[in-house]
């Protein structure tokens, strides 16, 4: 158990550092890779909602501190943590069969994992960009930022997951 905790601590720090670097990237003035949410997506399915929300808030707060974004990422990460369980139940409702799985391409299969990750990334992007805009005045730009950042983040995280997961993970 402590090996898995150490892996998640390293993932937490790694994703935080990666996001600090990615905060400087903005493709075409609209697409921003939000790679730190990979930590929230990778948390074990049966981890307590309280732990998921606390860890997500802490990670979002750290990103806010380094990115000077006044709590937007903390709120959006907490929203993602709250919506993570219902999103996971959409795509893999057999929670009683799971044991202690960590969502990945190898444990869930590409199709199920891609749907789960895309929905989670879209939920986060909608939350963070609506919070950032805080109005419907420039809805076109907000929608463009949501869609482009969702696509960019999804592709980056999918590529990262295909490299990062180990072959020892059990398939569900």
Compact description:
The chain contains 7 helices and no strands. The chain is mostly helical. Helix 6 (110-133) packs antiparallel against helix 7 (139-164).
List keywords for this structure.
0% strand, 7 helices, globular, 172 residues, single chain, mainly alpha
Structure description:
The protein is an all-alpha fold. It has helices at 2-22, 37-42, 49-67, 72-91, 105-108, 110-133, 139-164. It contains seven helices and no strands. The chain is globular, with a radius of gyration of 16 Å.
The amount of beta strand, in percent, is under 5%
| Whole-angstrom Rg | 16 Å
Give the end-to-end Cα distance, rounded to a whole number of Å: 20 Å
Task: Report the sheet with the most strands, covering strand number, pairing sense and barrel closure.
Answer: none
Structural class: mainly alpha
Tally of extended strands?
Answer: 0
Shape by Cα distribution: globular
Classify the helix fraction into a percent range: 55-70%
N-to-C SSE string, H for helix and E for strand: HHHHHHH
Average predicted confidence as pLDDT: 85
- Tally of helical runs: 7
> Which ranges are low-confidence, i.e. pLDDT below 50, for 5 or more consecutive residues?
none
SSE inventory with pairings:
Elements: H1 2-22, H2 37-42, H3 49-67, H4 72-91, H5 105-108, H6 110-133, H7 139-164
């Amino acid at each position: 158990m402590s090996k898995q905790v150490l892996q998640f601590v390293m993932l937490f720090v790694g994703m935080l550092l990666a996001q600090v670097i990615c905060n400087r990237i903005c493709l075409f003035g609209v697409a921003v890779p939000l790679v730190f949410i990979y930590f929230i997506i990778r948390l074990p399915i049966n981890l307590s909602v309280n732990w998921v929300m606390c860890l997500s808030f802490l990670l979002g707060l750290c990103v806010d501190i380094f990115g000077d974004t006044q709590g937007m990422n903390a709120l959006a990460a907490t929203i993602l943590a709250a919506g993570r369980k219902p999103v996971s139940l959409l795509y893999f409702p057999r929670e009683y069969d799971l044991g202690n799985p960590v969502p990945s391409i190898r444990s869930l299969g590409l199709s199920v994992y891609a749907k789960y990750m895309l929905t989670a990334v879209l939920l986060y992007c909608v939350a963070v960009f609506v919070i950032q805009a805080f109005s419907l005045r420039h809805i076109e730009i907000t929608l463009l930022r949501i869609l482009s950042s969702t696509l960019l983040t999804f592709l980056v995280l999918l590529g990262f997951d295909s490299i990062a997961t180990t072959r020892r993970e059990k398939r569900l």
